[in-house]
């Protein structure tokens, strides 16, 4: 017999809406590196965030990548990598 907690386990791991995840990423980048991005510069798919902005901004973001990812992990975000 299946337990009730097993049934609800699949709902526990639902991914937030892509817009909410992108907004969380933008907020985390702003806190870590003082770079403000628009929603159109961030694409989140399958746990990977792609940053489409100028090379200067992108390099600054990658310099703070570990800090950004740790902030996202504390927020239980689905983003596991930034490219």
Description of the molecule:
By secondary structure, the chain is of the alpha+beta class. The chain is built from four helices and three strands. The chain has a three-stranded mixed sheet with strand order 1-2-3, with helices on one face. α2 (18-33) packs across α4. The longest helix has 16 residues, at 18-33. 19% of the residues are buried.
Rg on CA atoms, Å: 15 Å
Helical/strand content category: alpha+beta
Q: Give a short account of the largest sheet.
A: 3 strands, mixed
Global geometry: elongated
Oligomer designation: single chain
Q: How do the strands of the widest beta sheet line up side by side? A: 1-2-3
Number of strands: 3
Low-confidence stretches: none
Question: Can you give me a brief rundown of this structure?
Answer:
This protein has 83 residues and is of the alpha+beta class.
Tags for this model:
single chain, 83 residues, alpha+beta, 3-stranded mixed sheet, 4 helices, 3 strands
């Amino acid at each position: 017999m299946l337990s009730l907690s097993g049934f609800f386990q699949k709902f526990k791991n639902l991914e937030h809406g892509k817009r909410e995840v992108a907004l969380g990423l933008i907020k985390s980048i702003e806190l870590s590196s003082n770079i403000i991005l628009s929603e159109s510069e961030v694409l989140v798919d399958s746990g990977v965030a792609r940053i489409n902005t100028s090379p200067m901004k992108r390099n600054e973001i990658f310099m703070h990548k570990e800090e950004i990812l740790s902030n996202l992990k504390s927020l239980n975000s689905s983003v596991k990598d930034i490219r």
